[in-house]
Amino acid sequence: MELKAKHEGGKGDGYFIVLVKNTGRELDYQGMKDAYERCVNHAIGEDSVVTKNYVDPQQRLQRFAVLNVRRDLSPLSPFPDQSKAKSYERYFRQRYGKSIKIQDQPLIEVRDISGRVNFLSDRKPTSKMKHPVICLVPELCEAVPMRASILSVALMLPSILHRVNAFLLVSDVKCSIVSLPRSIQCKILRKVLPAALWQKH
Fold first, then answer.
1. What is the CA radius of gyration of the chain?
2. Measuring CA to CA, which of 36, 91, 136, 191 is 20 to 30 A from 79?
3. What is the pLDDT of residues 106-159, one digit of tens each?
């Protein structure tokens, strides 16, 4: 089925491909619904990375790791904060103006992936740094083509390489000092070490 242009003389924007039954004269609505549901449910699973597609582009940079697929929950399940909405479906419709098409799809438990880039210092977690587990609707999410386990390791690579580079620099300095005459080594030790230490060497 061709998508007709709005204005006369314009070109069609594309085509819809629909499933038909064996007769070829009747649309297979149930088959199309099942196919769409399989795409939504199977594209996003455990260890996936997703973003919210119902927020502004700046907030879409926030990534979430899928911890679990909650097949016991659906958009019609009670929303955790009943003061905001009775169900997840009603919450997203009232808060973001998004209508959920597949009412029986399972929800996904996710946790925000930290945007921290410095893993060299051991910081104590605070209330602002905690990443609570929340439930999202797969239909309102976009999958990122990377596993959450791989992304978490990739985020630590800059800190790991920085630490390895520091160790290599220390090793180079040691080699340079050892190759110097004994008298120069003593002068360097006097400058960088306390007197109680360098006198032992």
1. 29
2. 36
3. 999 999 887 665 666 666 555 554 558 999 999 899 888 888 888 888 888 888
Q: What is the 3-state secondary structure (H, E, C) of 73-133?
A: CCCCCECCCCCCCCEHHHHHHHHHCCCCCCCCCCEEEEEECCCCCCCCCCCCCCCCCCCCE
182-192 helix and 148-178 helix, angle to the nearest 10 degrees: 130
Token couple for 163: 């630490």
> Whole-angstrom Cα distance, residue 149 to residue 49?
9
Give the pTM.
0.58
Calpha distance 2→4 (Å, rounded) = 6
Are 106 and 70 in contact, with CB atoms under 8 Å apart? Answer: yes
